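call fold(seq) -> tokens
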Amino acid sequence: MYIASDIKTGPGESCIRGTIGGTSPARVKRDGTEQLLEVLVQFDGSGGFRSVVWLDGAVQIDGRYAPSQRPDAILSSRFYFKHGVYSKRVFTYTLRSTDMGVRRVRVN
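ret:
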């Protein structure tokens, strides 16, 4: 698993490719076993955020995103979060997300 942080620089696929916090050391099981995936996103109020990802209670990814200072970066007025399976190697699988929700919480 990883968190992509692509930043648009122009039309189409023109972007700065990046990831947040590296790649997870754990692998998602492909045998139908249920696994608990938890994600915390903490916004910093300046256009950046910290993201922590747990799989079955163990931290897998912990990283920060900051807006690009490059002059060709297109600054968005919104964040876009997607979740899903974007496999580089195609295989037969079904992703089922249950009890999924977004909550606003204050973290001190």
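The first strand starts at residue 2 and ends at 4.
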